[in-house]
Design a protein that fits this description.
about 170 residues, alpha/beta, Collagenase (Catalytic Domain), two-stranded antiparallel ribbon, 7 strands, globular, binds zinc ion
Length: about 170
Amino acid sequence: MTFNRKLVIGLYGLNGFFPRDIKPYEAAATLFNMSIEPHKEINYTADLKLSIDELISQLGKLQRPTYNALFVADERLRDKKGLNSFGLTDPKARVIVFSEVALGSGINDAPQERILKEVAHLVGHLWGLGHCDDASCIMSFARTVEEVDLKLPRLCNDHSSLFKQAYRAFIGEG
Ligand SMILES: [Zn+2]
Ligand SMILES: [Zn+2]
């Protein structure tokens, strides 16, 4: 077997929603040598009024067919202080929660490039990468769309080598 199932990210919608265009999700996964497996047939429900920390701990407990899971909501996500959050990763539970809504002026026109960048950021956390001081690195923290737009769809040199290290260690495990 040459293809490692652990490099697949299952994509799941929440509360009847599913992303219309999965290309930016696929592009984000590809940056980390991973692939997206859409699961439109599974409909999970979650209380999106919860803070994103509480939400992700609930999502981590759901039964799912893939090792890695990316749950997408169609409502704004907020942290404990009520501040906007594009998404969150729990690297131990192998779970990501993300919303496209705050990345565009409306649900229907969330720009694909911003989705790519923020999903890639969250996948970077799955690999244990931390935040970056370089505003153009995908791992720099963004609270606003302006900050997202400053990023390039790539890792800085430091993060690129950290990812390669993590990837080699993971593949080496077999
Ligand atoms: Zn982050
Ligand atoms: Zn960086």
